[in-house]
Write a structure and sequence with these properties.
The protein has helices spanning 34-40, 67-80, 96-106, 130-142, 232-239, 261-272, 294-302, 312-324, 329-336, and strands at residues 8-13, 21-22, 29-30, 50-55, 86-90, 107-108, 114-117, 155-159, 162-165, 170-171, 180-181, 189-191, 195-197, 212-213, 221-225, 246-251, 276-281, 305-306. The chain is α/β, with parallel strands linked by helices. The chain folds into two domains: 8-213, L-asparaginase, N-terminal domain (Rossmann fold, 3-Layer(aba) Sandwich), CATH 3.40.50.1170; 221-336, Rossmann fold (3-Layer(aba) Sandwich), CATH 3.40.50. It has an eight-stranded mixed β-sheet with strand order 4-1-5-7-8-9-12-13, with helices on both faces. It is globular, with a radius of gyration of 21 Å.
Length: 346
């Protein structure tokens, strides 16, 4: 007799709108309570899955998200990794893409789904988008392919019918339900009447190697967005930050920056201090090509690293991850020029 495996899914509530439930007597929004949650989402009972839940003792507002909470999430997943087939992480939308990106690096050789989701309206409200996002995320976390292996063994964001690689995703809408985009990498799945997976895009673990969680991050990083008329004093103040180890330059177009001698000299001085400088575009879509124009070529010649088509969320969390492991500048540069979790196209 063939054994049928019952998927075992863990929901982790970190905070955010999706877990806020309206008190019918006071009208006030209260924090996540899984029994109340089940009441508002009775469809959970229709899954032939075992679903457990745990919540942060003090739910974190999305705008208060910090690296220490990413470490906490990674520890929870690592501690429960062998007991569950998949994980659904409920999170506020504002920093969801940062969290998904960080976890994609911290959970090395992940072989199980970690689906990050949330909502624009609380789960108890009549027009909430939270129900669909939650239910579909659970279904994806439990999905298996024809070989019986997890369908999506990577960190993803599911939102408004699209499953996107977590470290390729950015929030682009503060009001609409369709709040996230993956501009430089196609969605891994679309949820309509059926969930249609694009299997050749899904990141696969190296089965010869074990799952390896990491818990070290270094946030001595800075993002400098260029703009016409940026003052020398502003740049000097930013670059003088004590302990600075990496700078992300958000440049124009395909990686272009002003040709002002003082600006290029500041970049050379920064690199001479062993500070890593990475070039990403202010454009959502496209890639950095520093050799394309003189304004980008000068950065390349100064020693600035190509950020390719990385999102700002992915590049800053990747740097925090690499710096946290005290790797040499040479090793970090090599890994910034390598896709380690599907985060860039080279």
């Amino acid at each position: 007799m063939e054994h049928t495996h019952t998927p075992h899914i863990l929901i982790i509530y970190t905070g955010g709108t999706i877990g806020m439930i309206e008190n019918p007597e006071t009208g006030a929004l209260e924090n996540f309570d899984f029994e109340q949650f089940r009441h508002h989402v009775p469809e959970l009972k229709r899954f032939n899955f075992q679903i457990d839940a745990l919540a942060f003792e003090s739910p974190i507002d999305s705008s208060d998200m910090e690296p220490r909470y990413w470490i906490k999430m990674a520890r929870i997943i690592a501690e429960h990794y062998e007991s569950y087939d998949g994980f659904v992480l409920l999170h506020g939308t504002d920093t969801m893409a940062f969290t998904a990106s960080a976890l994609s690096f911290m959970l090395e050789n992940l072989a199980k789904p970690v689906i990050v989701t949330g909502s624009q309206l609380p789960i108890g409200q009549l027009r909430t988008d939270g129900k669909e996002n939650l239910l579909t995320s659970i279904e994806i976390a439990a999905a298996r392919n024809a070989e019986g292996k997890p369908m999506v063994p990577e960190v993803c964001i599911f939102f408004e019918s699209k499953l996107m690689r977590g470290n390729r995703t950015t929030k682009i809408n503060a009001e609409g339900f369709n709040a996230f985009r993956s501009f430089n990498f196609a969605p891994l799945a679309y949820a309509g009447i059926h969930i249609k997976y694009d299997e050749h895009l899904i990141h696969q673990p190296k089965h010869a190697k074990p799952f390896k969680p990491h818990f070290l991050l270094d946030n001595n990083v800075l993002i400098l967005t260029l703009f016409p008329g940026i003052r020398k004093e502003v740049v000097d103040t930013c670059f003088a930050v004590n302990g600075l180890r990496a700078v992300i330059l958000k440049t124009y177009g395909s990686g272009n920056a002003p040709q002002k001698p003082w600006f290029l000299e500041r970049i050379r001085q920064l690199i001479a201090r062993d500070v890593i400088v990475v070039n990403i575009s202010q454009c959502y879509k496209g890639t950095v090509e520093m050799h394309r124009y003189e304004t980008g070529l000068q950065l390349l010649q100064a020693g600035v690293i190509n950020g390719y088509d990385s999102t700002v969320e992915a590049v800053i969390t990747k740097l925090m991850f690499l710096l946290g492991h005290s790797q040499s500048t040479k090793e970090i540069i090599e890994k910034m020029n390598t896709s380690i979790a599907g985060e860039i196209t080279i």
